[in-house]
Amino acid sequence: MWIDMSEWKKVKIGEFLTEREGRFKPDDKRISKYQRLDKIDFSGNIHLSNKPTKTDMILVQPGDLVISGINVAKGAITVYQGEEPVCATIHYSSYTFDSSKVDLGYFKFFVKSAAFIAAMQKQVKGSIKTEIKSKHLLALEISIPDLQTQKKIVKEISSQLDKTEQLSIEIAKQKSYAKQLRQNILQEAIEGKLTADWRKQHPVQKGNPDYDAEALFEKIQAEKSETKSSKKTVAPITKDEIPFEIPAGWKWVRLGDISLFSSAGKSFNCESREAIGDEWGIIKTSAITSGVFVESENKFYSKKCNNDVQTKIQMGDFLFCRASGSKGLAGRSCVVEKISSNLLLSDKSIRIELAQGISKSLVNMLNNSQYGENYRLSLGTNKSTSMNNLTREQILNFRIPLPPTAEQKEIVARVEQHLQTITQLETQIATRETTTKQLMQSILKDAFGEGIDG
Hints:
Blueprint: E1 9-12, E2 17-19, E3 36-40, E4 46-49, E5 57-60, E6 65-68, E7 77-79, E8 86-89, E9 92-97, H1 104-110, H2 114-123, H3 134-139, E10 141-144, H4 147-190, H5 196-201, H6 213-226, E11 251-254, E12 259-264, E13 280-283, E14 298-302, E15 318-321, E16 323-324, E17 333-335, E18 342-344, E19 349-354, H7 360-368, H8 370-378, E20 388-389, H9 392-396, E21 399-402, H10 405-448
Parallel strand pairs: 13-18
Antiparallel strand pairs: 1-10, 2-9, 3-4, 5-8, 6-7, 6-9, 11-21, 12-19, 13-14, 15-17, 15-19, 16-20
């Protein structure tokens, strides 16, 4: 699709968009009867809710063009088609638009293009910040063709993007399938189905911790009595708490039953940069929440450690995120497989030492699975609008279907083998997704160019 841009006119976006004025406090009675715009997805669909917020609000009238300042370049832009006004946080902006100067479909495509990104970077004299403000958007000077040509471009782009949209839908299905496959394998492992054939060849041996979880449990309780382990006890698991049947030779326990010690870090005054060399850093929650320890996710604390060495993170540590500003991440865990930096626990992280005979890898898999997430959801820990928290007691109360030691090792080996195959599948899907996005940008580049001249 070749387009002659020589006849296009330069205009400021403010010539065809007019921001709707007015800002309201979230408890303002004038907007209390209206629903709140929760989000605009990347397909331009509006999602409403009645969630409370502490952020100032704007009012969106029916027919307004609504833009997400954070995700506009990803497609979070639409016309509100409701029958009565809605309110939105100030992270959105609302506009009336002059349809005699600009085709709305044309403008939607434009803000997804490299030309829009280039123009915004030029406008803000540096790089685009996390959020695009109306003052930058309205002052932006762009080149546009006449209205008839705009409509022609929209028709051509729509025809070509229909093909990429079908690819995107198929990729989304593949991603969902891979995610479900991963969860299915973990659930089969949790319920003992993954190693059913192994148990036939290795029957329960009463009194042997390697082949009898009851014996393993008793051994751990004896170990805890002989050591200076945590004095805190967890409540026995009742029949009503058991979510599914487990194989013979397994036992329902709580994380606290198989833990010797737990320790937490403190709150430190840190710089935002990463610690380097022999410097000391404090881990962020993002060092833990992916399920794999990410050493680089830390903040510089000090040139020297002073008296905080007892909370230094070591190889093999089993870490939990106690609090997170992102929903669903509080309570996730990781095992430190590799570390070379001087890093300390933060006040939002907990280290738990498991007893001998318990696989950290297995408990980590259980905790980060859908089963573990369902436990945390049952606690109602995702209701906060700012920080989602778990207490140490809630973490230690997590119910675990415990296999004997030998079967734990077999489960971990089999799960890792299956997940390796799924990871390869996910890599292939990610490659297809990247190719599809590149194809979409190529189509938009043909229509709008790479940037704004002048």
